[in-house]
Amino acid sequence: MESFKEGILQVVSKIKSSVLLDTKELDSIIRELQRALLKADVEVKLVLEISERIKKRFLEEEHPPGFSKKDVLIKILYDELVNLLGGETTEELAIKPIPYKIMLVGIEGSGKTTTAGKIANYFKKKGYRVGLVAADTYRPGAYDQLKMLAESVGVMFYGDPQERDAVSLAKKGIETLEKAGAQIIIIDTAGRHKDENSLMEEVKVLYRELKPNSVFLVVDATQGSAVARQARAFREAVPYGYVVVSKMDGSAKGGGALSAVAASNARVLFIGVGEKIDDLEPFVPRKFVARLLGMPDLDAILQRFAEFSKYEKERAKAIAAGKITLLDLKEQLESIKKLGPLSKIAEMMGLQVKVTGEEEMSVDRWINIMNSMTMEELLNPDIIDSSRIRRIARGSGVTPRDVRQLLDAYKNMKKMVKQLSRSRRVGL
Ligand code: GDP
């Protein structure tokens, strides 16, 4: 079975091997993405939404200079996949107050009991004293399973195979473990009952009586987008804030499960990636998608975009303040150059001026010099001191005097613009 990752890798390789990245190629890449997402059981509605957004952004957003079309598309794909799988989240679970009570809910077979052991192990490794409570009084074997997990992890355990009443059992468990010094108490609850209604009823009463600090819903990745129904059913019984998606290893439908949880506005906190006790990972959509795309150079692309958007903001500030930067001068010169040689432009405009070879040269030379400047220098020419001047001169193969000349011309231009706007203000 093709995994979610394999499907996404196909999309990436299609982007990499594209030639023009025109609308035809874009459409075929989007179709490949749709195929990969549908195979991963992502809901059709979400698939259509992400396709539309990627297409629209690629065609309508201005592509920043210096980025190839492929880089831009990869960046948009990355953004939108992160968005689909839960968005930017950096927040970690805050273990406060202590003892911190976590109640686990989820239907039988979702991997709840195994996950209880994994979470206990995770927090134990972080240095907490952890206790597990076996409050699933319905499934025979749940008690033994959790007890064994607690022993193998080396955390405290409370259970009572004779007790039928989950609420009084859990209350006793919390009390006992708290007295024994547990800082985190994890309560495993039943995942099956006579029927769904009585299961939800028990979950509701447990929540009301135990007042946990957090409720985690455990769902099984192999269920794909069907977890949306479970998420809704449990939401009516308990306000869970976090979800653990188990069995992400080897499930081709992991993408469907993750996107369904994200669409329900819950946050996936952990994913289960195997049957062993260590097979639990905090889920960070950004990191997950980066791994999914499998591109060693992705970090570099994202870094360049982040830098670019930082400078875009600075530039917007400069524009708002009516400041002219060297970047403006550079862009002006570049667009003039596109029209042809200066002498030609002057001729076309019917200007009587004679453009000398010297002036023609200096436009090229100035652009060249500015290419050796950093974005920071272009946006804040005031920071260009003599050591920077020497570096820029070396980089562009001119003398420091040439760089100074350019800076002087820039200063004159700034002065002119200032006078112009002043005269405009006084109505001249
Ligand atoms: P519960 O009924 O919800 O308590 O489910 P269990 O904890 O008993 O798990 C059901 C089955 O799923 C067991 O065989 C587990 O070993 C298996 N399981 C749980 N989590 C994972 C996981 O992340 N990956 C894999 N491959 N199997 C898992």
UniProtKB/TrEMBL annotation:
One Pfam family matching this protein: SRP_SPB
Annotated SRP54-type proteins GTP-binding domain residues: 99-294
Keywords associated with the record: Cytoplasm, GTP-binding, Hydrolase, Nucleotide-binding, Ribonucleoprotein, RNA-binding, Signal recognition particle
Function: Involved in targeting and insertion of nascent membrane proteins into the cytoplasmic membrane. Binds to the hydrophobic signal sequence of the ribosome-nascent chain (RNC) as it emerges from the ribosomes. The SRP-RNC complex is then targeted to the cytoplasmic membrane where it interacts with the SRP receptor FtsY.
Positions that bind GTP: 106-113, 188-192, 246-249
Catalytic activity: GTP + H2O = GDP + phosphate + H(+)
Protein name per the record: Signal recognition particle 54 kDa protein
Domain AAA+ ATPase residues, every copy: 98-239
SUPFAM superfamilies assigned to the protein according to its UniProt record, in alphabetical order: Domain of the SRP/SRP receptor G-proteins, P-loop containing nucleoside triphosphate hydrolases, Signal peptide-binding domain
Entry GO MF terms: 7S RNA binding; GTP binding; GTPase activity
Similarity section: Belongs to the GTP-binding SRP family. SRP54 subfamily.
Ranges in a coiled coil: none
UniProt-listed InterPro entries: AAA+_ATPase, P-loop_NTPase, Signal_recog_part_SRP54_M_sf, Signal_recog_particl_SRP54_hlx, Signal_recog_particle_SRP54_M, SRP/SRP_N, SRP54, SRP54_GTPase_dom
EC number: 3.6.5.4
GO biological process, one term: SRP-dependent cotranslational protein targeting to membrane
Subcellular compartments: Cytoplasm
